[in-house]
Amino acid sequence: MRLAALGAVLAGTGLRAGPAAAADAPALPAASAPFDAATVPDLARALAKAPYAAPRTDDLPASLKGLSREQYGAIRTKPAAAIWAGDDLGFTIEPLHRGAIFTGRVALFLVEDGQVRPVAYDPARFDTGGFALPEFSEDPGFSGFRLRARFPDGPDLSDFAVFQGASFFRLVAKGQGFGINARALTLRPADARGEEFPVFRAVFIERPADGALVLHALIDSDSASGALRMVLRPGTEASTTEIETTIFARKAIDHLGLGGMQASYLFGPEDRRRVDDARAAAFSAGGLQIRNGAGEAIWRPVHNPDALQISSFVDQNPKGFGLMQRARTYEDFEDDVQHWEWRPSLWLEPADAWADGAVTLIEIPSDSEFNENVLAYWRPKEAVAAGSETTFRYRQHWCWQAPAAAPPASVTGTRSGRGSAGTRRLFLVDFTGDGLFAEGGLDIALAASPGSIARQQFFSYPERRTVRVAFELDPGSERASELRLALVRAGRPVTETWLYRWTS
Known about the structure:
The protein has helices at 39-49, 62-65, 69-73, and strands at residues 76-77, 91-96, 107-112, 115-118, 126-127, 144-150, 157-164, 168-171, 181-183, 186-187, 199-206, 213-220, 224-233, 238-249, 256-263, 265-267, 282-283, 287-291, 297-301, 309-316, 320-324, 345-350, 356-363, 374-380, 389-399, 410-418, 425-432, 443-449, 452-461, 466-474, 480-489, 492-493, 497-503.
């Protein structure tokens, strides 16, 4: 499975503005139709009551489907042709052409003065790098759109967000480069029945005000349709999205993913096995951070496994979780092209009580840095009944570091290598924080299951405000072990809880 291999799932919408065809239910609003908060939920509700119609892509000429990555990337909206260019609203919209693996059709609409205004396709809108765009007999729509925004204290517009491919989207804060992807809805990932990829059918974008942009997205898949309301705000330390998602279930859904996010992880300091690469590391997120319902702070390094791995962190009403990039220096990666140190972390905070479920982490073997092979999401314990309507609310922080209340010390390094004898493995785990050097001694709380700890000790480096824990795992004949480590003082944790799954 390759989460980045999207060619099979990036499909067209099957809906079009105006009168509905037989397979198109419902019709999208026509020009000047009224728009309010109920418009997209009503569309999604009607869509869910109709049989699912697989999106069509046969309207896209072969010349566009056959474009290489470079050829497709050369097709860009001309700056002067961007929506709101010259209006000084702090945002512009650049519709994205269909082509290459992005064969799906997304209908774009503006919402102005309470009315809908469709964004019509116009080939003159695009620079093509010399490629001759084909003629279309009807409006082909777009594959998505790019947002440019003015960040605080910034005089010019910069890349801010991209909505393209299935129901994926991504944002950046000031000074960051695009990296991690978010999902509007996740259904059956790494499931034996096969994953289901909901797609954007239509997006309605309100005229921005007060430094924020509001959009409404209609999504659809075989099992459910959905309506999203999103408020996007560009920022310096973090850009945020406030999301309200209502799911209209056609079928019973027993594997639902909320707040899905995916990142690439090829190799890092602790797992250079089989790596012949001049760089120090290559990944857009180094670990999964969780603040569970009990308030415990957890750090789980991610890695590139030999076989598919699924980890579930059972919880009730989580306070937050996210795929985080903590390596922030050039020396961490030594990559002059990708600059992984500029990639955003993505931290999610539920706005409602999410009851029982599990933060779920999927790690997929990958041989390419372009494969987004790490996926995290919240999986509710309770199934979604067919015919039901369910609403979830949450906030995303596309950030340099999580805004959640930090523990006195966080995990800042994980390394492993051959141990002193036999099958033993040596681990070096670094914790950094001023609280480590307060009065009172530190104790190591360390456990392995299965397996045993052969030895353990820690080294203190006050000048770096860091304590390193060194220990050896003796797995015996076991081929996997779950490790858990924290530093405690007077029985209370003073660090994040480090979790790790070792496999032979």
